[in-house]
Every structure is written in structure tokens, then in C-alpha cells.
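Shipment paperwork, digital attachment
Item: protein structure file
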Amino acid sequence: KEHINIFDVFCVAVGKDEPAWSVKYDPSQICAFIGSTVTIKCSYKYPSIIHGIKTEVKKRFWFTKLNNRVPVNLMKDSDYKGRITYNFTESSSSSSFLTIKDLKQRDSAEYKFRFITNRPGGEFTGSPGVTLTVLGNRSVYLLRIFVRRSETQTELKCESSCDQIKPPSYVWFNKEKKMEQQTSAIVVSVRDGGRYSCSVKGHDDLRSPSVYAPESLSAKLMSSGQITEGRSVTLSCSSDANPAAEYTWRKNNNQSVVSKDQQFILSSILSSDSGQYYCTAQNQLGEKTSGLVSLTLFILISLLVLIISLR
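Attachment content:
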């Protein structure tokens, strides 16, 4: 099975009597994908000589579980059989490496390192340990695109809900077609009509929601029947856009804005409000303008007075 992502982790947690005895991990949280390989590293220290006697490490291992309050060595845990290796280095600051391959969803856990020396009471565990989150579906792993616009172009940045040790290579899509860029951020032209989404390389099925300029713009008069003076009238504008659009209303091809609300409400309409209205939906990726909506008033009162006077 192909392993797509390998993460090298240098882990920090503190033991007692720092710095004489210590275990250190950094960072405290790791994200990796199902099927990938992760390496977690710890450095640990202990006094080389105590009361003239050389300190020797007799046992060292990683664990996630306790059995009757005793840590269970991962090498003896059937859940990890054939999938883990330990590596150690000895220097002024000793190190331990835990490598887990073919990650499973169940591998999500807190991993701790423990070492036991030849000294009485010389048994130490780095706690808290490293929390590993194995990502395998959309409910766990969320990608989103942050949009920042200048006058002529827009920057799109792909970010995940879980920081990874080695920033992954991202893949970008425009209208479902894969783009050449494999960086966390790209620059696109304003009003180019694109629909952009991103994913981590090798995991096209875990894709962010698309971002795009307003589409399917609709402007309509919500009131029914004849419109007379004094009535309340609502003009409504809607569109499909991500990020969400902002709306403006204008009248009779005039550039001055009469409303910045998605629903333009004229609470007590006057004859001077008659005319043609249109709305514009805009976000950081572009804008779209609606067709004209006609608002016509019926002046029934004046007509009734005229009929009575003729009689």
C-alpha cells in the first residue's frame, strides 16, 4: 500500500527534577492521514552518575494503554502488530523514535514514552504525551479557503482544521479540473468566473467547499396585487455565492445606492418611489448585477374622487 504522507515529529513533555530527569516532546498534537506513516520523536535525560554509580537505562518503550495501572508496551499491543518500530540514539540528550505505519483510525490516541533505569525509583514517563489524530473522513478533517482581495486580484489560501508537522502539498481545482499549483496559496484574477477548491495532495476526496463569485442572481418584487400609496413593499435579492455576497440596490440606472440590505423594504410607499430597481451581489471573487424590477403604483384614491365629482 502506498504511503502518501510521512510526518516527523519532535515531541515536549516534562518529567520530574528537570533538567536532571526529563522527557520532552514537541509539538503536543499531530495530524496524519489513514494509511500514512508517522514518526514521533522524544528526547530524554537522566543523571549519568548517581552517588558514584553509573546510571543505565534498562527498559524504554512507548505506550497508550494501561493494564492494572501498568503501561502496556506498544510492541506487545496486538493493535499495532507488525506496524511499529523503535529507534534510539545515545548522546548528551538521548532520543527515541516511534514509527507507526499504515495508520488506522483507531491509532488516534495519546502516546507517551517511558524509560526505566537501574536506580531505585528511576522510572519516568513523559506526561502529558503527544496526541495523534488520524484523519479519515470529512467530519474529522476540514479544509477551508480564506479569501483576500486587492484591487485587481484575489489571494486564496487553503488551511486545514488540524495543523500537521510537515505542511502538506495542496492541490487546487477550478470547476473540478485539477490545476498545476501545489502550494497552500494561489492568486487568481478578480471576475474570472472560477469555482476554486483545494485538497491535500493524494487525498482528492477530502476537498474544501468551493469559493466563487455570485451566481444565479435573482431580484424580485415580493408584494402581490396592486400597489398603492402607503403600503409596505419589499424588493428581495438573492444569489449563490461563497464567501457570502453583500448586496446593494439602485434605482433607474442611478449610481447612488438606495439600500445595502438584501431585502429592500419601503415601509410606506410614495408615488415618487415608482421606478425601476436593480441589485448587485458582490464578494471578494467578483460581482453580478440583476435585471430591472419595475415598481408601479396605482393611484386609486384620486381616480375615485374624479368619478364622484363627475356624478
